[in-house]
Specification:
This protein is mainly alpha-helical. The chain has 2 domains: 7-50; 55-177, Cytochrome c-like domain (Cytochrome Bc1 Complex, Chain D, domain 2), CATH 1.10.760. The protein is 40% helix and 10% strand. The strands form 3 sheets. Strands 1-2-3 form a 3-stranded antiparallel beta sheet, with no helix packed on it. A two-stranded antiparallel sheet has the order 4-7. It has a two-stranded antiparallel ribbon with strand order 5-6. Helix 3 (74-80) crosses helix 8 (150-163) and helix 4 (84-97) crosses helix 8. It is elongated and about 90 Å long. The structure holds heme C. Heme C binds at residues 94, 97-98, 100-102, 110-112, 114, 119-121, 128, 131-132, 136, 139-142, 144, 156, 160, 174-175. The site of heme C has 26 residues, from helix 4, helix 5, helix 6 and helix 8.
Amino acid sequence: MSEQPLKRDPIQGDIVHEYDGIEEADNALPVWWLATFFITVVFGLAYWRVSPSSRQEYVTEMASRLSEGGEVTEEGLVMLSEDPATVELGQQTFHTNCVVCHGEHAEGNIGPNLTDDHWIHGGAATHIYTTVNSGVATAGMPQWGPVLGDRTVRALVAYVLTIRDTNVAGRPPQGELYVPAATPAAGDAPPAATDAPAPTAAEAPTTAAAEAPTAVVAAAPTAATVTPSP
Ligand code: HEC
């Protein structure tokens, strides 16, 4: 890789490029520098492999907290759906209470197919939570919150999220298409309120220009949350 030097500088060594008087030397990196660099890389990889704070442990930790109650959020429910113990509880409960109407494989029977991407009452995790928790009295879907309790309802939602859009052959899709937004990875910043269109200078009346942006941000809806049943 070494190029033919243009000249030799007493301090910098071989000069390989020169442009407008700015000179670029090409010297071998000091051994101590390279050693530190490679040790850092090896340490980083090793630490990454053995580090206890893997995504899986983070999910398990969050899951144990979430199933103790707290606010029902889209992100929290999606995280529960990544926790094997919670999903298993949901699956067992589903087999005991739900297969009569939704079918052995959730393919639908009296109730709709829960494995397609169409939802009568919304396919977001918080929508599914509301449907399971509060039921649909007029359509024969029982209200499960008071019967099973909040923790089990969350586990059921976690399970339904794992079968959502797996398309088991059964009852044809009903309702509206729901495509989940990309799940943010752990540690990613939560979706910012910047989703709301920023007011352009043209829209804001010149006199009230200073107040306009604040008003819009305040009016932007916060992340969809549902109040859990007691
Ligand atoms: C007695 C029958 C019955 C049982 C038992 C039942 N469901 Fe339902 N479920 C229904 C019906 C009927 C609907 C459709 C409601 C409608 O058309 O508005 C429904 C709808 C749903 C939906 C919404 C589907 C959509 O397209 O939006 C979900 C989610 C759901 N049920 C989950 C469950 C879970 C979880 C259980 C078990 C804890 C369960 N259901 C038990 C009858 C039942």
